[in-house]
Amino acid sequence: MYLALLASSEGAAGAPMSPFEVNFGLFFWTWIVFGMLFLLLKKYAWPAILSMTEQREETIRRHLGEAEEAHAKAQALLAEQQKLLGESRTQAQAIMAEAKSAAEKERAVAVQKTREEQDQLLARARREIAAEGEKARQELRREAVDLSLAAASKLIGERLSADADKKIVLDYLASLEKSH
Amino acid sequence: MIEGQAPDIGEMVLHHTADAWTIDLYPIGAIHLPRWADVHVGTLTLNLSPTKHVVYLALAALLVFLTMWLAGRSLRRQRAGEQSPKGFAAAIEGMVLFVRDDIAIANIGENGAKFAPFVMSLFFFILYSNLLGLLPWGASPTGNLAVTASLAILTFLTVEIGGMIQLGTRGYLGTIFPHVPGMHGPGAVAFSLFMAPVEILGKLVKPFALAVRLFGNMTAGHFVILSLFGIIFLFGDIQGWNWAIGGLTAVLVVGVMMLELIVAFLQAYVFALLSAVFIGMMQHEH
Q1: Do A24 and B46 lie within an 8 Å CB cutoff?
Q2: Residue ranges making up the domain that contains A78
Q3: Taking CA atoms, what residue in B is nearest to A28?
Q4: pLDDT tens-digit series, residues B104-115
């Protein structure tokens, strides 16, 4: 460095310069020239050359961002759909189970009711049959009395007083019934 | 050159690679650049007179600007006509995009687009400066240590100021006084203080290497070419062999010129790439 400085001062004095000397004046010139070039290129050249690429990069960046956003949105929608689907599935299952149990209950109730009605009908029928039987029996008895009276009156040829005869026959029948 | 006496090849080589106050356009003539008085800034003596390298520096900048401006203009016109870029403009666009995407953004990261104009300007400015040295009468401003040093200082400032903005005062100071994870108390403080000179040296070595690498490569190439030309002057007067020597030298020089063409691109690439890497390292320092 010291030697170079020495050479520089010699160069300034007019002696032939060496390629290894450092002329500090050139720092100033290099900075000025490079600085001007840098500013001019930045203002007039790079934008024109790079505009297309920068636009393309911007577009790609925007598209990527949009795609990512759309993807996230789609994912959220999908998750929501799946949640809804799951919910509706469980709901449907619950409804079906409920319906099944309700139907089961209904059927049981219906069966029960039918059985009760049947029983009632049966009971009534039985009661009616019994009543009819009783009625028939009494009818028969009356008929028998009348018949036997008629037969007896024809047989003895003489009319007994109806009430006294009736009493005799009834007593007879009662005795018959007792002997049975 | 000087006929009749033994030529001093060493002197010739140094003369042609060194900066000068005149632009030698032999045999047309020579342009004598204006000489200004020295300027004293503190203890430093500066001479701001333009030199040959300053002229070529400006020429390189002008050519870079014209290239980029024309390419930009025709790209804009082609795009307005709904055409895909073609020809010269498409080639320039490809190169610019390579520098932007594969040098700047690939190495700096998410802030790459912000630093890309600096890296692109640096790449093309250095490339044109390198290539100017291969033209007849041309000179490589990048074969001048002051030029490469001032460009390296620009990289250094970009790295450090970019780091300060990105990391904040605390984060930036952490790059000078490193904190070792897991170390606490006075031991950590002592270690930080001990490491500070090393860290500062590390920061300064990077631009120094950038400057010396570019300067060395460009100067060395010119040395080789000029030395090969020197063969002609040393052995060219051997009777009967002068054509053979001239032809052989020309072939060698063409070969080295081809190599220099590669080196011109390679060194511009290396300077821009390392600048981007250093900026990126600082941006991601934690």
Answers
A1: yes
A2: 2-179
A3: B48
A4: 999 999 889 899
